[in-house]
């Protein structure tokens, strides 16, 4: 009888635990306009100093957020919010979309002309859940007019600020430190999501053939703000792709591109913003580095070869964050407190 009572108590404990987990898993982050889940929103602790994780495909919070009272939610397409989870009235968190207006670009065939995209770039490297570096810059990206691959042909940095937190590197291997240091903010970014628009128009979600490398493409279309977000998501891959020679694994976890649809079907020249998350594992220690690159498009035009040559001669100017993109005193300001500015 005593053994039976112990068994019953153990079963009740498991049931209570499962019930709590199920209740928590119901907390979902959604778009306030259309109630669609907000995928890959960044979740920070209330102070904005620790990276907790990201929302999944259904918009659910990461389980690690369950232990926190306050969280901060940040997504490139939405107004940032601070949430007190303990006083949450229901199981839904609503995010308000940000409206970005991009002037129309009329493309005409010109010899040697390139598409020049002026962008605000924010890049953060996260070493085992701790922000290690933060950089902000204003940059020109140059694209060949008929190149559909999506990577910039070249880039020119106009102004930048860089910050580093040495404490985040304590106890880490030299290789992880090297990976978490600053890199070219355009190295992982590509801009070809618009090519999948027609395929996604009917289904909103398609899978790729090779699960380990790809995962899922999906689209959220916002008819109110006349834009669509096209996403490549490989968070669901079986395992990161291994490179045994160097002792690393890597996974392109998430790539999102938002296009204006006010001028018709999405094209590169009506891109509004993009986000790219890239994770590298050290297979021996399973330490990892996340690189998060976000870009807001400030303008796009067509430039000649002579204009590009003139751009190359431009000198760095003092960095000034564009108004309206990231509010003063927000999570980013909190994140770089205590970091050392790199001149």
Topology of helices and strands:
Blueprint (H helix, E strand, L loop, with lengths): L1 H24 L2 E4 L10 E4 L5 E4 L15 E5 L6 E4 L7 E4 L18 E14 L2 E15 L9 E11 L9 H7 L16 H7 L1 E3 L8 E7 L4 E7 L7 E3 L4 E13 L10 E12 L4 E17 L1 H8 L18 H6 L3 E3 L1
Parallel strand pairs: 1-6
Antiparallel strand pairs: 2-3, 2-4, 4-5, 7-8, 7-16, 8-9, 9-17, 10-11, 11-12, 12-14, 13-14, 14-15, 15-16
| Strand count | 17
Outline the low-pLDDT stretches. Answer: 6-25
Structural class: alpha+beta
Give the overall shape, derived from the CA principal axes: globular
What is the CATH class of the largest domain? Mainly Beta
| Helix and strand sequence | HEEEEEEEEEHHEEEEEEEHHE
Return Rg in Å. Answer: 22 Å
End-to-end CA span: 72 Å
Q: Mind summarizing the main beta sheet?
A: 11 strands, antiparallel
CATH fold-level label of the largest domain: Lipovitellin-phosvitin complex, beta-sheet shell regions
Share of helix, binned: 10-25%
Strand content: 35-45%
CATH structural architecture of the largest domain = Roll
Describe this structure in words.
Residues 6-25 have low confidence and may be disordered. Strands 7, 8, 9, 10, 11, 12, 13, 14, 15, 16 and 17 form an 11-stranded antiparallel beta sheet that branches. This protein has 5 helices and 17 strands. The chain has helices at 2-25, 174-180, 197-203, 305-312, 331-336, and strands at 28-31, 42-45, 51-54, 70-74, 81-84, 92-95, 114-127, 130-144, 154-164, 205-207, 216-222, 227-233, 241-243, 248-260, 271-282, 287-303, 340-342. The longest helix is centred in the first third of the chain and has 24 residues, at 2-25. It has 2 domains: 2-95, Immunoglobulin-like, CATH 2.60.40; 114-324 and 336-342, Lipovitellin-phosvitin complex, beta-sheet shell regions (Roll), CATH 2.30.230. It has 343 residues and is of the alpha+beta class. The radius of gyration is 22 Å and the shape is globular.
């Amino acid at each position: 009888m005593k053994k039976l009572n112990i068994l019953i108590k153990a079963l009740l404990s498991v049931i209570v635990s499962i019930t709590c987990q199920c209740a928590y898993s119901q907390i979902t982050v959604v778009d306030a306009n259309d109630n669609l889940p907000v995928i890959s929103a960044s979740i920070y602790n209330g102070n904005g100093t620790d990276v907790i994780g990201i929302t999944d495909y259904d918009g659910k919070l990461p389980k690690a957020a369950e232990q926190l009272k306050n969280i901060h939610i940040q997504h490139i397409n939405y107004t940032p919010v601070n949430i007190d989870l303990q006083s949450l009235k229901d199981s839904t968190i609503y995010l308000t979309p940000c409206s970005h207006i991009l002037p129309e670009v009329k493309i005409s065939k010109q010899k040697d002309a390139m598409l020049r995209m002026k962008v605000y770039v924010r890049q953060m490297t996260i070493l085992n859940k701790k922000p290690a570096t933060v950089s902000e810059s204003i940059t020109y990206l140059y694209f060949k007019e008929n190149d559909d691959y999506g990577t910039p042909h070249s880039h020119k940095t106009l102004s930048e600020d860089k910050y580093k937190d040495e404490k985040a590197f304590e106890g880490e291997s030299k290789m992880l430190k090297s990976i978490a240091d600053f890199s070219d903010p355009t190295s992982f970014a590509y801009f070809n999501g618009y090519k999948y628009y027609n395929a996604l128009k009917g289904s909103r979600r398609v899978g790729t053939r090779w699960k380990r490398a790809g995962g899922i493409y999906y689209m959220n279309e916002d008819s109110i703000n006349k834009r669509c977000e096209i996403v490549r998501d490989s968070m669901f891959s079986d395992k990161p792709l291994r490179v045994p020679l160097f002792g690393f694994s890597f996974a392109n976890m998430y790539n999102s591109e938002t296009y204006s649809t006010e001028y018709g079907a999405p094209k590169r020249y009506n891109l509004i913003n993009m986000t790219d998350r890239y994770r590298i594992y050290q297979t021996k220690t399973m330490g990892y580095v996340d690189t998060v690159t976000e870009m807001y498009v400030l303008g796009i035009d067509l430039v000649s070869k002579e204009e590009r040559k003139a751009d190359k001669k431009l000198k760095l100017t003092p960095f000034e964050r564009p108004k309206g993109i990231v509010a003063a005193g927000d999570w980013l300001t909190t994140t770089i407190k205590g970091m050392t500015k790199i001149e």
